[in-house]
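This part of the workshop introduces the protein records we will be handling. Getting from the letters to the tokens is the skill we practise here. An example says more than a description, so a record of this kind follows:
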Amino acid sequence: MHLGIKLAFAASLALPFFSGHVPAAQAQAGPNAEQEKQRVLEKMNSAAANFRSTSADFEFDTIDTDPIYDKDVQTGKVYYQRNGSSFKMGAHFTEHNGKPSARAYTFVDGSFKLFEAGTDSVTTYAKAGKWESYAILGFGASGKELDAKWTITYLGSEMLADGKTQVKTEKLELVAKDPAVRKNIQKVTIWVDPDRAVSLKQIFTMSATNTRICVYSNIKMNQPLPDDAFKFKTDSKTTYQTQ
């Protein structure tokens, strides 16, 4: 999977760096796991019907263990917006491994664009539209949408922190039904608040040696988003390319 598309997964997609995570006793799925899964998906169906937008602080960790341990940390702000079938996502980075960053990317109605401030360039990925349903993972997606793309296993409930508030989340393990996706992502584990149809935490198991962890906090629902949520700070010298 191209770097740009991997980034889209990291943000939705929607990678406890573990600052937003408060350890808590986790409920076991038990014999009624299938019933509990359906309960969660039905709640997400109801919440998704009222979902318009979300903003949140994020921290993405990419961890490689081979050939040596390496951890890459990025922080910033992410925005999601849905209006019928129209979907928009924007991620604006503020720090990369403790240093200032101005990288950003957007996923707007099937078009994925990556802005690299260092080279003052915007790259559009023309074939990214097929990934849109995966980019929305855990943010405004209904239970029906999740079930259409993933084989879902219910793993219990867990309390996580959203800022100063404790939120009961439902832990779901997702395995893509599409073999092409499974080649790049073995599984995704999400901690979802089904009452809001948002994820507080996601773990993308890319391979046995590569993991991407995403934590979201200070989540704001259905509030006006900034004018530049899905835009880049470009200038007359910015270069553009399509891949």
